[in-house]
Every structure is written in C-alpha cells, then in structure tokens.
UniProtKB/TrEMBL annotation:
Example GO BP: thymine catabolic process
Residue ranges annotated for the Aldehyde dehydrogenase domain, each copy included: 16-479
PROSITE patterns the UniProt entry points to: ALDEHYDE_DEHYDR_CYS
The protein, known as: methylmalonate-semialdehyde dehydrogenase (CoA acylating)
The species this protein was found in: Roseicyclus mahoneyensis
Residues that span the membrane, as ranges: none
Length: 499
C-alpha cells in the first residue's frame, strides 16, 4: 500500500511519529493509501529548517522570485491531468471538476508573476526640508497555510503563490483526506526553481495544527475550513501574536425574482447546488424565489433537471455530474440532516435517500435532494449541509428575500437572478455578504480581485488572493531620511572666520 510522508527540504521523507491515517477511495470505500501524521517535533523541525532557508529567499530580488512563479505556471499546465487525476482519486470529484480545481489555483500563480509590481513601496520627495520618506514591503519570514479537503489544489495554490512570491517560506498543512495533490505541487515548485526548504508540506491532524499555532517562528496563518475550526485557529493564532486569516462555513442564498429567466436560474441552481456533490463553500444551498408563482415555476423547472443528474465515479467518464462525498461520516451526516428536514415539515420534492450505484455499494455516494417549503427554523436551513441538498425557502417579497440572506449567520456568497437593474443594484449595495453574483450563481472573484466572506464565514482583516494576499504576507517598513547638506560644495581649505 502506498505510504505518503511529508515534503521537507526539497524531498519526500517518511514520517517518524508512528501515527498514520487512511486515505480512502470515496467511490469504493476502500483504503488506497496511508498518510503520516506529523508530531510536534517533526513540525518544529520543518519550521526551523524553513526559517534558515527563508533568509536567502527573502533577499532574492522579486523578479527572480516571479520567474519561479512563471516556470510553475508552465509545469502545472504540463501536469494538469496528473494533478486532476490525483484529486479525483482521493476526493471523488469528476475529472473536469478536478481540472477546474487546478485551474482556479493556477490563475493565482499567474497573478503572482506580477509580484515585483505588487511589492513596490511608496516615495515622497521633500516631505520636509531636505527630508525624503519612503516605504518598502518586506516578507514576514515563515508563514503557514492550513487547507481543506474540498479543494486540494486551488486553496494550497492560493496560499503558497502570494506567500512565496513575497519572499516568505511556507509551511503547508493540507487535508489528510486527500494529500497527494499538494505533494505533487511541491515537486513542481522544486522543478520550477524554488530553493529547498522554502515550501514544506507537512501532513497531519490537530497535533500538527497546534504545533503551527504555538510555534513562535511562524508569523502568519491562513486557513480554510469549517467555522468552528476557523474560530479556533483565528483565536489561538492571534493570541500568540500571529497574523491570521481564517475562512469558514457558508449558507449561500440565491434570490430568484419574478422577472428572472427561469431556465437560466434553474440551470444555475443545479450547477451551483449539486456540482462537486455540494462540497463547496460557495455552493448555492438555498433558493429563495419571490412569490409563490415564481416558486412553482422554479420547482417545475428544477425537478426534471435534478432527476436527470448522473452520479458516479470519475472513472465513468466526463458526462458524470458529480461523484461521491469524501467520507462515510460525511454521507451519514447529510442523510441525517435530510431526515431532520422531513421530520420538521419540509417537502422533499426530489428524494435521493435510496440512491444506490450498482458495483459501488460501499462508496460514499449520495443522491440529489430538493426540498420545498423550508423555513428558517429548520436544521437544514440553519446548518451548512455540505452535500447535494438544495432547500427552497419561499419569500413573499423582495424585502423578505433579502432579509433572509442578511439575517443568516454566514455571509460567504450570494446571488440574485433578475432582469431588473435597479433591483440588482439595490441588492449589491445593501447585502451584508462578501461576494455577490448578479445572474451569476457562484461569484468566485478572479485572481486579481480578492476572495473573502463576511460574518461567521471569515475571520481577519484581509482576503485571499489578489492585492490583499500581498498585503497579508508582507509588512510595511517606512523610512524617513535626511542627508547632511554642504558636501556638494566640495572640500574647504581655509579656516572659516569666527562669527
């Protein structure tokens, strides 16, 4: 059986803790590999080694660091299929979806090629008599990224690209559920010219995470995952004097106005609600049609689309719509929440509870579910299900619809589908949510903008990727300079008369 260790100082190494975790094939329920779980001593050693390597890397001029990013872009494109296959094998995503995972990470690396421009400081000539003032952006030193199972390529690349291009060394602690892709990315970074020790990939669980949070050498921590863990990491990291940006859960609402193109809205909901088996923090999990007539038309459009979805393993071809969820525990939790929705009075319009895929009975497949007449007091509304379950909450008016999204504790993403520009503008201006789509169901910003949620979806002052990432991974130093005058007059060969 394959044994997955760590990537330390430019090579794969075996773990020494004696602890391992099984890496499952979610399509079959079989163990396909074991991954080492680092001890505190292993993590501390990797951090110390990274700190030594970082000094020379931080002193390397930004253009040379950017050339490593440029080379990495070419290598990721070269190995796109290899990376995607590793994701599909361990996560269960369809192959096209896995390639999309890599692609959205690649776009951030492309943005990082412009690091020399983004790292420029400011200058003021003659801020005072003979005084100039200027600032410079300098790397923090050693930083850490703790990344989730649902995007094994995208989120690690979002973290490592800006951090490395800024001159830092990075400790990457990926999810132990699908560790192969981050290890492959580390190999590509080395091939691109990244010096040994600048990127350390340390696999592990809570012990490894706590070792990062308590190590004084680590200056900043970035995290993506569930809200309880985001709150834990943010509070412990900041209490230890570290910068921290932590992104948590979501319950993303899509408002459908009466004038919306209903076919467009239904297609958007199916893709955004069921893609990747709903295991996305930007998935639409709540549809909010305005008015019963709108709701009835929407449900009529949704049902045949959802019933036609193809669920299966990635090996079945590119026409599969979504694959299994990541673990048996995730499947059990999704089905538990579905049962709670039925018990609490929601109408289960499309029932995927008895879904069974011949030949894959032990896999973690969950059929698609559609609820109607969901109310805000139900568990399926309040909880992030992280599965192929779409809830419909009927709103009597636009104000009620926008209020639902604004009152929810999560504020990651939201969308409105309408032909009315005034309604769309009002929605975009008033909504207290970090990322907004107008006739766009999953409004993930492109790499040169920033990604981040509000409320309990995000903790910290700066977002991921875009200019914010370079602000997060650098600190500003401001210099005030005045030079003595008179040197330009040349040497004096006579004594100056007494005044």
């Amino acid at each position: 059986m394959e044994q997955i260790g760590h990537w330390i100082d430019g090579k794969r190494v075996s773990g020494t803790s004696g602890r391992v975790a099984d890496v499952m094939n979610p399509a079959t329920g079989e163990v396909q590999a074991q991954v080492s779980l680092a001890s505190k001593a292993e993590m501390d050693g990797a951090i110390a080694s990274a700190a030594k390597a970082q000094k020379a890397w931080g002193a390397t001029n930004p253009q040379k660091r950017a050339r490593v990013m440029m080379a990495l872009v070419g290598l990721i494109n070269r190995d796109m299929d290899k990376l995607a296959e590793a994701i599909s094998r361990e996560h269960g995503k369809t192959f096209p979806d896995a390639k999309g995972d890599v692609q959205r990470g690649l776009e951030v690396i492309e943005f990082c090629i412009g690091a020399p421009h983004l790292l420029k400081g400011e200058f003021t000539d003659s801020a005072g008599p003979g005084i100039d003032m200027y600032s410079m952006r300098q790397p923090l030193g050693v930083v850490a990224g703790i990344t989730p199972f649902n995007f094994p390529a995208m989120i690690p690349l979002w973290k490592m690209g800006p951090a490395l291009a800024s001159g830092n060394a990075m400790i990457l602690k990926p999810s132990e559920r699908d560790p192969s892709c981050p290890m492959l990315l580390a190999e590509l970074c080395q091939e691109a010219g990244l010096p040994d020790g600048i990127l350390q990939v340390i696999n592990g669980d809570k012990e490894a995470v706590d070792a990062i949070l308590d190590n004084d050498t680590v200056q900043a921590v970035g995290f993506v995952g569930s809200t309880p863990i985001a709150q834990y990491i943010y509070s412990r990291a900041t209490a230890n004097g570290k910068r921290s940006q932590c992104f948590g859960g979501a319950k993303n609402h899509m408002i459908i106005m009466p004038d919306a193109d209903m076919d467009l809205a239904a297609d958007a909901l199916v893709g955004a609600g069921y893609g990747a088996a709903g295991e996305r923090c930007m998935a639409i999990s709540v549809a909010v049609p305005v008015g019963d007539e709108t709701a009835d038309r929407l449900i009529e459009k949704l049902v045949p689309r959802i019933e036609a979805l193809k669920v299966g393993p990635y090996t079945a071809g590119n026409d599969i719509d979504f694959g299994p969820v990541v673990t048996a525990a995730a499947k059990a939790n999704i089905l538990r929440l579905v049962e709670s929705g039925v018990a609490q009075g929601a109408k289960l319009v499309v029932d995927g509870r008895n879904f069974n895929l011949q030949g894959y009975e032990n896999g973690y497949f969950v059929g698609p579910h559609l609820f109607d007449h969901v109310t805000p007091d139900m568990d399926i509304y309040k909880t992030e299900i992280f599965g192929p379950v779409l809830s419909t909450v009927r709103a009597a008016s636009y104000e009620e619809a926008i209020g639902l999204a604004m009152d929810h504790e999560y504020g990651n993403g939201t969308a409105i589908f309408t032909r009315d520009g005034d309604a769309a503008r009002d929605f975009a201006n008033r909504i207290n949510i970090g990322m907004v789509g107008i006739n766009v169901p999953i409004p993930v910003p492109l790499a040169y903008h920033t990604f981040g949620g509000w409320k309990k979806s995000g903790f910290g002052d700066l977002n991921q990727h875009g200019p914010d990432a370079f602000r997060f991974y650098t600190r500003t130093k401001t210099i005030t300079a005045r030079w003595p005058s008179g040197i330009k007059e040349g040497a004096a060969f006579n004594f100056k008369a007494m005044d």
